[in-house]
Amino acid sequence: MSWQTGAREATPLLGGYIPVAISFGMVAVQAGFSVWHTILISTLIYAGASQFLFVAMVAAGAPWSLVVVMTLLINARHVVYGPSIAPWLPKSRWWPFLSHGLTDQIFALALSRLPQLPAGQRLGWYSGAMLLAWFSWVAGTAAGAIAGEELSRHWPLLGEIMPFALPALFLVLLAPRFTSRSWSIALGCTIGVAMVLTLYGFTNASIPLAAASGALCFYLTTLHARAGGRLDG
User: Fold this and answer.
1) Tell me: the pLDDT tens digits for 116-131?
2) What is the distance between the alpha carbons of residues 187 and 199, in angstroms, rounded to a whole number?
3) Positions of the chain with pLDDT lower than 50, given as ranges
4) Could you list the residue ranges that cross the membrane (predicted)?
């Protein structure tokens, strides 16, 4: 079945999801959130970096209006994700729920995989992939929230190591894109903007601004290629 195929092909993503989810569960509980509140954050927000920012800002006593704005700002990249894969997916009454599972990794996997599938299998494939990722994130969060203190007591370095799993997963997903000059230029632009903004102290703004810069760069290079330039798409 197509949903089984989606779940199977998304399984390698769990190597990045689960360690970071465990790390989030540990961090949230240490910041003063209850186990159930921590699990609820992963279930309803389900936004990786935004969850860490959310917990840090709430724990620091930041105004709720600022917390909401910053969380939405970091997730603004999803405005691009949806329209990018929408042409490959059929209409469905379940989309208000299914769109909740559109993460960076699922988007990257879907963008390369959906065009290869028959039209009738795409919705099932996406559902299987996104549900597996979502459940693994919630389960990892629960494990970190419940057993995090015990884990960190036995392995003190665990909390320092696990957050690197997600950046490593991003690198694995992005590496094949560097075979294209257009993608290489766009990714290089994104990395450069993010590094400069971070070095100047604009850590929270670096993610959405770098993503917007990379998207604009990719659009311009693709436009140049269509106009007869030498860049490949």
Assistant:
1) 999 889 999 999 999 9
2) 18
3) 230-233
4) 20-45, 52-74, 123-148, 154-175, 182-201, 207-225
